[in-house]
Amino acid sequence: MLPDEIKPAMQGLIPSTLVSCSLEGEPNTTEISQVWYVDDIHVALSHQFFNKTHRNIRANPFVFVIIRDPEAYQEWHLELQYDHSKTEGALFDEMDMKLEAIASMTGMSDIFQLRAADIYKVLSVRQSNSRNIA
Questions:
Q1: Quick check: is 35 in a domain?
Q2: What does the DSSP 8-state code read for residue 95?
Q3: Amino acid 134: pLDDT
Q4: Pairing of β 35-39 and β 74-86
Q5: Closest to 113 in 3D by CA, of 50, 35, 70
């Protein structure tokens, strides 16, 4: 479901936008550091400080994410469904190391801390201003 062309947008060079919604219909938008390719039907999002987003996702597991390719200047829109979180293991360690690198490049080493790698099932993927591909 996730095409190879999307992978450059998942390098964390440009923050991604995450939109969640409470059960009451109140939206919440935030910027996230990482949308990580897990496999062709799953991504992991870095869970850092998102208390309101975290509450929304536990109550309503559907989110919308915009990722941006820094090379092709292409946006990708993903509809996702929360599956589970990982707080240890290889995936968590890789994301934590990447987050540390991002934090050091932005001067925020003491602020960024990965709490979990939240795993999502990809429901749909499309390029901005293009046909739906999944």
A1: yes
A2: H
A3: 53
A4: unpaired
A5: 50
How far is it, in rounded angstroms, from Cα 55 to Cα 120?
16
Q: Alpha-carbon distance 103 to 109, whole Å?
A: 5
Number of folded domains in the chain?
1
d(CA 131, CA 122): 17
Q: What global pTM score does this model have?
A: 0.86
pLDDT at 88 over 70: yes
**The tokens of 86 are what?**
């990982």
Place of tokens 């975290």: 54
With tokens 């550091």, the residue in question is: 33
Q: What is the CATH number of the domain that holds 17?
A: 2.30.110.10
What is the end-to-end Cα distance of the chain in Å, rounded?
6
Work out the pLDDT band at 103, boundaries 50, 70, 90: low
Q: Are strands 16-21 and 27-32 parallel, antiparallel or unpaired?
A: antiparallel
